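Pasting as-is:
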Amino acid sequence: MAIKELSSMIRVGKEGVEITDRNAVRNAMDGIIYDAVFEADDEKRKAKFMLIKEVAKACGAVPASIQGLYEEMGKNYPGFTVPAINIRGLTYDVARAIFRKALEMRVGAFIFEIARSEIGYTKQRPLEYTTVILAAAVREGFAGPVFVQGDHFQLVRKNYLSGPDLETNYVKGLIAEAIEAEFYNIDIDSSTLVDLERPTIKEQQRPNFEATSELATHVRQLQPAGVDVSIGGEIGEIGSKNSTPDELNAYLDGFKETFKGAKGLSKLSVQTGTSHGGVVLPDGTLAKVKIDFDTLKKLSDIARRDYGLSGCVQHGASTLPDEAFNMFPETGTSEVHLATGFQNIIFDSESLPEDFRKEIYHFIDTEYAKEKKEGQTDEQFIYSTRKKGFGPVKKRWWDLPAGVREPIMKELEAKFALLFEKLKVTDTTGIVQKTVKPAVVKKEIDAGLLG
């Protein structure tokens, strides 16, 4: 269905979009979002996304900052850990599956996110990502705040060392694009700049907290009226040694000294033993990961007690065994980031046709052959690179028959249900409604699209 079909279901006036037939909008959304995502003309595609986004807001699915909830967490930890979910492929279908489970289990505290690197290789710019998620919310009848987050908006060390201004300005540009697309949650990662050759921990963290302060100031200058963007910082480069209380104190004290805004950070990412995507063994299976939950608890307690933050954030957790997830609420972790495990379910599903899987793997073998590291087995290479098998062939994934996509989504729904239960975010719609008051930020739209 083309987007112009919306003309019989909505009215566009000076006050924005008014929905005249909500059920019709819901039922039409599959075709409308497909039409927008695969529009060939860049300007038309952007205009279609803007219109769909305003339709979603009129239906009650409103992009929001989780700041209010995290401020409450900083005063009184409510006993749950917010899942932040990165969707790399089949984004509309996966988001629908998440909203279905959220409605069924009364989950209000959950985040959709995408990292700087993922925006590139999944071919999902911020405006597309927000719009597809909001379209999924409309399709499933979800109304309420929708939290969309920029994950690892990272200063890449080698880029920064060769041109600090160039790299900083690139990330500032990405932040501006994301906020314009209504990402009202931004995780700044300048932990890459920590200089361990400096004599004290404070000096080691200085490049990190100074860069975070500069980028956080940029966020506050760009955020729209009525919105306090939730900003995260990071002290431990994921995959390196575990973070310490001294590093946490040095970073947060330094940030407090250099940042002049009214509201600072809402959370802090730390390293406790994981790596993104997990560690792949030569046969393609995953090595068991041991998270230092004692460190996670200690650092979350300090962040909350001494700095009023919601707590600490755990990255790279989606490939952990199921029985580990209940530990996050028990240790007072405020947020956990989940990505590769969902990608694995999609790629490894028996419902994914073998010839299609082989087609994607052949594409990866051909297009990314230069990325194969010395000593890497074929299985290790495919596992570590198949995340790049979504974006360049996005339409092939979206065009998979419903008979293929639906059973895969059932597998994902089972995983989402388990995570929501383990992370104790069931029945959190009440606390989210109480602490988060989303501001509806009206955006200009092209009514001419409706014919």
